Amino acid sequence: xxSEENGTPLLRVRNxxxxxxxxRVVWDVSLDVRPGRLTVLLGRNGAGKTTTLRAVSGLNKxxxxxxxxxxxxxxxxxxxxxxxxxxxxxxxxxxxxHRQTVEQNLLLGGYTLKMRRAALREEIQxxxxxxxxxxxxxxxxxxxxxxxxxxxxxxxxxxxxxxxLLLLDEPSGGLAPAIVSExxxxxxxxxxxxLGILLVEQAVEASVxxxxxxxxxxxxxxxxxxxxxxxxxxxxxRDAYFGRGGREAASG
Length: 252
Ligand SMILES: Nc1ncnc2c1ncn2[C@@H]1O[C@H](COP(=O)(O)OP(=O)(O)OP(=O)(O)O)[C@@H](O)[C@H]1O
Ligand SMILES: [Mg+2]
Hints:
By secondary structure, the chain is of the alpha/beta class. It is built from ten helices and ten strands. It is globular and about 45 Å long. Bound molecules: adenosine-5'-triphosphate (ATP) and magnesium ion. Magnesium ion (MG) binds near residues 49, 50 and 92.
């Protein structure tokens, strides 16, 4: 089972602390992501989820703790160096270029990486296999697609870099509830490529369903860390979000 897996995790975060200038908002975050596995980071609004991802990616400076990628300490590396080592980050509310086609959006994802033409073609084909709807709509304007499809395109853009680790911040944000599960399932399928995924979400049930590990953050500290099997009944999460009283109220 997941909790008993050993070996070096792809991402290893220990006792991370970070914030904005003198304002500290993340106090103690530890979590792992293994290759081909998904760790979901849950928590209320303002808990520090986005700030944690920013520190993992290097956009925010760590003032405490460590971030290791594939056994290598990257805590002091700049964001572009972490990208080169295999990290990709799809930020909260990431928008695609509405007035460009689906394929042009993917090409743009590759141009910024200075990829060669043949490699670009190969990557784009791979993305179409992962997200068939993008292949079907390759010639259409990105703005003509649904919110869920645009989110898949944003993820596809990030995958152009062939990352080992994908950081996703609330891909369900702004989507109709009916398509949240679909987007989560698609994200879950990306694990089959060997990719490790750190997913930040507010959509608890749909994200835990595709997760291997679950961490809950509250006021900048991890308060629950467990395998997804262990939080199957979601009661553990309810406690973490609302306290024990919340669980009793909900079950009685
Ligand atoms: N640029 C910033 N400057 C100063 N404080 C910030 C900044 N961004 C976020 N914060 C503060 O840091 C804390 C954590 O915010 P963060 O965005 O990490 O939360 P979150 O868990 O991602 O919330 P949400 O679910 O609403 O996206 C909040 O108190 C927030 O007000
Ligand atoms: Mg956020």
